[in-house]
Design brief:
Layout: H1 3-12, E1 17-22, H2 28-34, E2 45-50, E3 56-60, E4 73-77, H3 80-90, E5 96-99, H4 115-122, E6 127-130, H5 132-140, H6 144-173, H7 180-193, E7 196-197, E8 203-206, E9 230-239, E10 247-254, H8 261-287, H9 293-306, E11 320-321, E12 348-351, E13 354-356, E14 361-363, E15 366-370, E16 375-377, E17 386-387
Parallel strand pairs: 1-5, 3-4, 5-6, 10-17
Antiparallel strand pairs: 1-2, 2-3, 7-9, 8-9, 9-10, 11-12, 12-15, 13-14, 15-16
């Protein structure tokens, strides 16, 4: 934990403190920011970092070791009365503090503290505000090692996508049966062989399944892949090591030598939307203009709406990427939520607009990493639907 940096951020945000609280490991953010990993968390603990001075701990007597190693004074409690009295003393003199709370649950990734605990803190005469910006600063900004892990994972992920298209080509050309689940499991095998892991298996979908943004094949629902099919690959993974971060992309292919005009038209709309969002991020980074997540969503959504497919773009433009594939930085979102968090340096997120019709869907996804005065797409950028049967052997 970088106490000096956290306290500096609190002063800049005009906050008196940041109150961490947990029970039964409900708040993974707290453990990552504080860099602790207690063995047992069956009792409530509190840790207050003030903008100035020494932090304070409030722990249960039978789990007093939970915050061991963290700096600060320690008070212990057993009864609920002791707990409330100790919390009131801890918060004495505080006017405005941050917690893992989100007003109206606008940012559910950060809205982890239960309503009753927020009421308890407010009952001490303290205003509770969202820690979302602090969380982004201390949870979503990548180290150099994380940036390198992202690049390494990206190389394997792109190789897996290319191998999947080749696998489909060879099976169809050889008149061999192949299905969505077969391709998915081949990608999983490649990840394991190259030291990558993922929270879930990738999305391999054809035809109508491509219109379901979160479809995932199983042995029971897997569709065959044949000539004339549209294929969507949504693939994400990270290195199997502590602190590694994800790489997450979506590519489109067509099982033929010439892609039908209808698919090309929709892909062109999606590509234009994707590129408009990328340009906005890059221009803001290069000029130093403050940029917020909802603005990036607006840029992509404007293109798709102007082309007549606004009602068919049914999810946000992008999500933060970190140690979890859906990270705790700003999301590119003015649809599912109104994300006002700033897009800040050393954070990464997806840009993945899509158009989902009744019989098929098209999505293109890239990852964008923001630097001090620039922003870059971290992998290859798809410019056209891949004609799978035209791939060279």
């Amino acid at each position: 934990m970088d106490l000096k940096a956290i306290q500096a951020a609190l002063r800049e945000a005009n906050l008196d403190g940041w109150l961490f609280y947990d029970h039964h490991r409900r708040d993974p953010i707290a453990y990552r920011v504080l860099k602790i990993n207690p063995v047992m968390c069956t009792r409530r603990w509190y840790y207050l970092i003030p903008k100035e001075g020494e932090p304070a701990k409030l722990v249960h007597r039978i789990e007093a070791q939970n915050l061991a190693g963290l700096p600060g004074t320690e008070e212990r409690y057993s009864s609920w009365r002791e707990q409330r009295e100790g919390l009131a003393r801890m918060l004495g003199g505080m006017r405005r503090i941050a917690m893992q709370y989100s007003e109206l649950n606008n940012i559910p990734y950060v809205g982890l503290v239960d309503a009753g605990t927020v009421e308890l803190v407010r009952g001490c005469g303290v205003e509770v505000v969202s820690s979302a910006d602090l969380v982004q600063q201390f949870e979503a900004c990548w180290s150099e090692d994380q940036w390198q892990s992202h690049r390494a994972a990206g190389q394997v992920v792109h190789e897996a996508v290319n191998a999947a298209f080749t696998m489909i080509r060879d099976a169809v050309r050889g008149d061999k049966a192949i299905g969505e689940y077969d391709v998915q499991q081949e990608i999983v095998r490649r990840f394991k062989a190259n030291g990558l892991v993922a929270d879930e298996a990738p999305n391999v979908s054809v035809n109508a399944h491509t219109a379901d943004p979160h479809y995932s094949p199983s042995p029971e629902n897997s569709s065959p892949i044949r000539a004339g099919d549209l294929v969507l690959l949504d693939v994400w993974a990270k290195q199997n090591q502590p602190g590694a971060v994800y790489f997450d992309i979506t590519w489109m292919g067509y099982v033929g030598e010439t892609v039908p005009r209808r698919y090309l038209e929709i892909f062109e709309v999606v590509r234009e939307a994707r590129d408009a969002a990328i340009r906005l991020v890059q221009e803001a980074a290069r000029t130093g203009r403050p940029l917020r997540g909802y603005e990036v969503d607006d840029a992509a959504r404007e293109v798709i709406t102007r082309c007549g497919f606004g009602a068919c773009f049914v999810h946000r433009t992008g999500h933060s990427i970190g140690e979890e594939v859906h990270g705790n930085g700003a999301n590119m979102d003015n649809f599912e939520t109104h994300d006002e968090r700033r897009v800040i340096p050393r954070t990464c997120f997806s840009i993945e607009p899509g158009v989902y019709l009744q019989d098929f869907g098209v999505r293109s996804e890239v990852n964008v990493f923001v630097e001090e005065r620039d922003a870059r797409v971290t992998g290859e950028t798809q410019q056209a639907i891949v004609p799978i049967l035209a791939l060279r052997r």
